[in-house]
Amino acid sequence: MDNLSIKGKWNELKGSLKEKYAELTDDDLLYEEGQEDKLIGKLQQKLGKSREEVIDLLKSA
User: Fold this and answer.
1) What is the per-residue pLDDT across 13-61, written as a single tens digit (0 to 9) for each?
2) What is the domain-level CATH number for residue 15?
3) Based on the structure, what is the number of domains in the chain?
4) What per-residue confidence (pLDDT) applies to 10?
5) What region holds the CsbD-like domain (predicted)?
6) What is the per-residue pLDDT for 40?
7) Residues 48, 37: contact at Cβ < 8 Å?
8) Residues 6+ apart with CB under 8 A from 18
9) What pLDDT, on a 0 to 100 scale, did the predictor assign at position 59?
10) Are 51 and 44 in contact (CB under 8 A)?
11) Structure pTM?
12) Long-range contacts made by residues 1-7, C-beta under 8 angstroms, separation at least 24?
């Protein structure tokens, strides 16, 4: 999964996600390099979406 191509544009992506999903906190959106699965898991729980939906959301944001 090419690190979701988020490494270079994470701040922009994070802002976009916070606009769409006001319930997301900074802790929910804490991204650490190499910890993509942890981020996806947090977003799955918070948003009630499947892993594939969360990955699509991150790629399209």
Assistant:
1) 888 899 999 999 988 888 887 888 999 999 999 999 999 999 998 888 7
2) 1.10.1470
3) 1
4) 83
5) 6-54
6) 92
7) no
8) 24, 29
9) 83
10) yes
11) 0.76
12) 1/36, 1/55, 3/33, 3/36, 4/36, 4/55, 4/58, 4/59, 5/59, 6/31, 6/36, 6/58, 7/33
**Which domain, by its residues, includes 55?**
2-60
The DSSP 8-state label assigned to residue 60 in this structure reads H
Nearest to 42 by CA among 16, 14, 61: 14
Sign of CA dihedral 15, 17, 23, 24: negative
User: For residue range 7-22, what is the model confidence (pLDDT) as tens digits?
Assistant: 668 888 888 899 999 9
User: Helix crossing, 10-20 with 51-60: angle to 10°?
Assistant: 110
